Amino acid sequence: MGRPKKPTPNVEKAPHRLPGSFDLGQDQFMSWEGFWEKVVALSRTFGFSQVQTPMFEDSRLFGFWSKVGCQLLNFLQTKGPSIAAAPAGIFGLARLYLPLQEQEPIKVVKWYYDMLVACWDEKNELKQNREFGFQIFGPVAPVSDAQLLNLLLRLFTEVGLSNFSLEVNNVGCVECQPNYQDQLKIYFKDKKYDLCENCLIYLEAGNPLQIFACKNLACSTTTTDAPVIVDYLCETCRAQLISVLEGLDELAISYNLNPHVIGRPWNRRTVFELRCRIADQDFVLGTGGHSDELIQSLGGAACPALGFDSTQEVILKALELAQIKFAAKHRAEVFLVPLGELAAKKSLKLFTELWNHDIIASEFSGPSSIKMQLKLAESSKASIALIIGHKEAREGTVILRDVRSGMQELFVIDRIIDEVKKRLGR
């Protein structure tokens, strides 16, 4: 009898990436790293501290989210509280602030953050992203709105974006917004046949304000002659809006009063969108506004809350459209070129010794010709290439090559660190 055949494994093609998610490749990650360095530097300058909250929380934390068209990504379990993925960062931040408020009722915090978020969108498709933003909790002056926008404009300018448009509105509060919603119901009652299906749902649910955010051309046209909310603001909301606009004027930040900017369902009073003109199209970089009822809805004392949020996907898309690229944070100074298995083993120790002497080294992992590796050394912008062939590995020598000129010299491996330092001007 012959040798029994080995069972053939049942190999299936790997499934595709889930719709609503996205991968972060090498170039994209470099762009995000460059952008995030700007976020960290400016946040510290403006007095913000970094915090982080988990992706999964007790689903009861997201009570306000039930007012949104998207649905929570819930995880059923037989024991314990219902768990859900965070659909937005602000809820975890509010939970984090609550014990601080209990210790000090007038506590003011300024945080910046990034975190994973996920939910089911309006099409019942999974939507995953990484959200980042800035959040202020506590009794702050109205000028804080202008200062936050000052930070945002400086951030996006420093990463290389331009042609900004700041769209500002005030959606009122629990006192004045209901009256305005009633006026909108009367206005849209005779125009409901011009509205899309989603806007009809908003109208029937008693939330016609959401119609202003619809991108459907017919719905947008219908809102042209609709009542404007600034005519229905209470004195407190009106005064707050005036203070914000005065702060923007003081900083010479131009803005447009735009009734189509309504923020999120949990937003109150001043809301805004920061837009950017890129490649002949308007690009929304992020949204912001007040969420002054959120802390109280979670059992805390009434507390002002001001924030801005965007996503990694949005920022990377904007940088890509604007053709903005970031260089590697650490440029290689020395590129190792091992030729053969023995040379590769010798280069391991040399690589470590270079880094122990604060010399930034790089190498190509895998079999390749010397011609190809020298091209990689040139593309890495390294000024020196250290070549170890089979002969050099056996004799304990290294070939030092000036990448620009192509000149080469042979050195004993014990002297190579000192020679590299000399060539680098150390």
UniProtKB/TrEMBL annotation:
Gene3D superfamilies: Anticodon-binding domain (3.40.50.800), Bira Bifunctional Protein, Domain 2 (3.30.930.10). Keywords: Aminoacyl-tRNA synthetase, Ligase. It comes from the Bacteria. GO terms for cellular component: cytoplasm. GO terms for biological process: histidyl-tRNA aminoacylation. One of its GO terms (molecular function) is histidine-tRNA ligase activity. Residues 333-423 form the Anticodon-binding domain. Belongs to the class-II aminoacyl-tRNA synthetase family. This is Histidyl-tRNA synthetase.
